[in-house]
Amino acid sequence: MAKYDAVFFDLDGTLVDTAPDLAYALNQVLLEYNKSPLPLETIRPVASDGSPGLIKLAFGISAENPEYTSIQTRFIELYRHHINRESRLFDGMENVLQTIEKAGLKWGVITNKPAFLTDPLMQALKLSQRASCIVSGDTTANSKPHPDPMLFACNASAVKPENCLYIGDAQRDIEAGNIVNMDTLIAHYGYLKSTDQPETWQAKATIYKPEEILNWI
What we know:
Elements: E1 6-9, E2 16-17, H1 19-32, H2 40-43, H3 50-59, H4 68-81, E3 88-89, H5 93-102, E4 106-110, H6 115-124, E5 133-135, H7 148-157, E6 164-168, H8 171-179, E7 183-187, E8 205-207
Helix pairs in contact: 1-4
């Protein structure tokens, strides 16, 4: 008998390795501003932080800077155009999804990525029709770590939070899952920073590769 009725995933850094395409778009903007591109390994730990974190990394500015909006607009434009250039499921994740599906369980995505980026990526990877729900950062009034997206996903999938497993690579993921009484796993293979302290996030456990999810379902 399955332990859970549904398994939910964060998107960037948990289900899909999107860092290469985010890095490509960011480096194209840097080149347009006559700045040197950054190595992927420098960008990867910030890939879950969206355009604000990536722009701060590359340009050292925040939203208050007069140049921020134009840089962000260009970055998003380039990323949308190259959203599926190299992005792929993490190694082993397809087997995890197939195992979940064969067990008759539901799976879905709960991400802070806005829908205008989430939806085309999920479609390009042929995941949209397989997921029981896709909850983006603007699907509900509040994004993670607020519990609203988690509860929306449960309602959309007709499951109770306490019967769900949520996997994410950021503290906000674990906080959001814990608030609604989901079991939570830290995807350590994702985009954790060297300054992160996942041992303090109060997750059920930490996993180091997607296949370890199978030990929980």
